[in-house]
Amino acid sequence: MLLGLAGLGLCVGLGWWAVQSPWGARAAAWVISPTPTPLPTWTPLPTQTPTPTRQPPVRLDTATPAAPPTLSPQEANRLRLAMDPGGGVVIDPAWVALNNHANGLQIVEETLPGLTRINEQTAQLEPGIAQAWNVSPDGLVYTFFLRGDVAWVRWDANRNQALPVEDCDGQQRFLRAEDFRYGILRTLKGDTRSEAASLLVNRIEGADLYLQGVVEEDYPRIKVLDDLTLEVRFTEPGSHYALLMGLAMVRAQPRWLIEGDDCHNANPQQWTEAAYFQSYGPYLLKEWVSNTRITLIENPYWPGQDNIPKPRISQLEWTAMDGQAALAAYQRGEMDVVSVPPDAVAAVRADPELNAQVGSAPELCTTYLAFNSQAAVVKDRRVRRALSLALDRPALTAKFLDGLADPAFWFSTPGLVGAPASPEMFPDLGVRFDPQAAQDELAGYLREFALQPEGVDLTLTFPEGDTQRKIAEGLAEQWRQVLGVRVKLDEKPLKDFRAAVSGVPAPQMWRGLHCYEYPDANDFIKEEFGIGGAVNPNFTGIQYYNPAFENALSEAARELDGLKRMEAFAAAEHVLVDEDAVVIPLFWHKRTMLTQPYVGRTLSVIGGLEHFEKWGFQ
Q1: Is it true that the peptide bond before 209 is cis, omega within 30 degrees of 0?
Q2: In a designed cystine with 465, which of 15, 87, 111, 191 is the match (CB 3.0 to 4.6 A)?
Q3: pLDDT tens digits for range 123-158
């Protein structure tokens, strides 16, 4: 999924289905290590001896290994990338949902930076176009202070150069707070039909009424205080709002180009085509050949700043091709960076030369099991805890998703803003394999109801597919070996599976996948499992409520200190996956990529969204 692998793209690629939801709570039964483990910038995977019985049916190209290209200086400063050939690329910020337009999201990130920006290596929030922001004492009002020297630009194909955008009086247009206000309002406008508007309607005051067309655009609490100051009022406190205000759907948009003015015709449908596109980031759109190629070129008018420097690579070129074709092109020296297809990871890792060029990073997706906490048998927390403690997650990962995932001990993927950073930093958080504790939990239930293990009636529902079936069978086998229970497996076609898990009542136990909508722990924990959330809607889903869980999420929502916020989310995780065990985390997915040795790069931990302006040729 590179050009930015994210969310549902991975869900579709793996054939898993994601559901979503919100809530919170606090308890303390873990220790935070005093020395956090730093996130890697580039992590080569260790060389492994291939095991013939587990080698996937992938044939690597046997051509001569790639060497740095002998190109002219102009050509050598062009980075060659691959993009998914399936489906169209969308680069309209209002339509780029984080998890289903990964290709377009990467283009928006480089051409239209947000008010705030997430550091791709540390997942920490940094200044974007806003150099600073204030939060009111009640946590409801955020005020953003923009830099004033960022110019709107466009690519002139006839002159083969970037030119500044001018207004109807011939004056150069600079980025202003009104451009961001318009971008937010356009995303919220009903006629835009933006999927991403759902992330704003229940947060920005008045946004819901504007979306419904009940009020005019001056009603939502998005105010321009002056050319470089934007104020946004939210409906409830939320420490993740500064991050939210940096996402694609709240980027600045050129109203004069979309709706027209005295010197432009309205162009709401074609304004994102290369011939018309106007932007302001470190790169600008030079060429877009549908389903074939996209080219970005450095913006000479970008002033640069410490965390968004002037680009070192002058041109980025994506070519549409599938994963195996991209891998073969990489081996021939025709690609500089590629994602490794899942079925080729083992073969690539087994090749010493390729393995030295491999890097891996979090995909920000978690596979899990969810319980209907009101269903027969699993309404007893002892049964849920026994099932969770009986799973050897590292063994399951190594057997079924080697190189594609890490074992998950809690729900929110490390790498998310606010999420517990790593098992090393939180060694006692979550659930580990403990056969004796699992047997003790189940024994209490069996005694109370005078049952034998084989008499425990359990069913796991999952979407059809070979990988899904093998994993489900692996789970059932571990439960049989450790607990003596025999779990029935209910494999359903994807359409029927979706209907079942959203039906009333939900299945007893089912398998799900969540990939980020926005890269913050709030998206994973509150948006998924809070009351009214995607996996915990009224009268169905996990049907879960615990005041301690809610209290921890409320604390995280108010907390601005990064470490304290992480501790609050860790408290919520403890209740969710350990004390109550209404969710069993299984796998944290990761992506694997190859990079030619002559490319100097950073490695994104935020789902594959790269910041290419920091890259260079060595």
Answers
A1: no
A2: 15
A3: 889 999 999 999 999 999 999 999 999 999 999 999
> Of 438, 316, 336, 317, nearest to 384 (Cα)?
438
Whether residue 45 is predicted with pLDDT greater than 70 in this model: the reply is no
Does residue 235 have a pLDDT over 60? yes
Confidence of residue 539 (pLDDT cuts 50, 70, 90): confident
DSSP 70: -
As a whole number of angstroms, the distance between CA 388 and CA 583 comes to 9
DSSP string computed for 284-320? EEEEEETTTEEEEEE-TT---BTTBPPPSS-EEEEEE
Q: 305 pLDDT exceeds 50?
A: yes
Residue 21 has pLDDT above 50, yes or no: no
Helix count and strand count (H, E) for the chain: 19, 22
Answer whether residue 42 shows pLDDT above 50: no
Return d(Cα 305, Cα 398) in angstroms, integer. Answer: 42
Contact indicator for 344, 327 with CB cutoff of 8 Å? yes
Give DSSP secondary structure letters for 116-130.
Answer: EEE-TTT--EEESSE
Contact 401, 513 (CB under 8 A): no
* DSSP secondary structure string for all residues of 551-569: HHHHHHHH--SHHHHHHHH
The Cα–Cα gap between 379 and 456 comes to: 13
Which one has a higher pLDDT value, 37 or 498?
A: 498
Q: How far apart are the first and last CA of the chain?
A: 25
Instruction: Please choose, from the candidates 55, 153, 123, the residue with its C-alpha nearest in 3D space to the C-alpha of residue 402.
Output: 55
Q: Tell how strand 229-233 and strand 459-463 pair up.
A: unpaired
State the average pLDDT over residues 359-381: 96
Q: Is 364 helix (H, G, I), strand (E, B) or coil?
A: strand
Strands 459-463, 488-492: pairing is parallel
C-alpha to C-alpha distance for 129 and 114, rounded to whole angstroms: 6
| pTM of structure | 0.84
Burial 238-274 (b: 16+ CB within 10 A, else e): bbbbbbbbbbbbbbbbbbbbbbeeeebeebeeebbeb
Is residue 251 predicted with pLDDT exceeding 90? Answer: yes
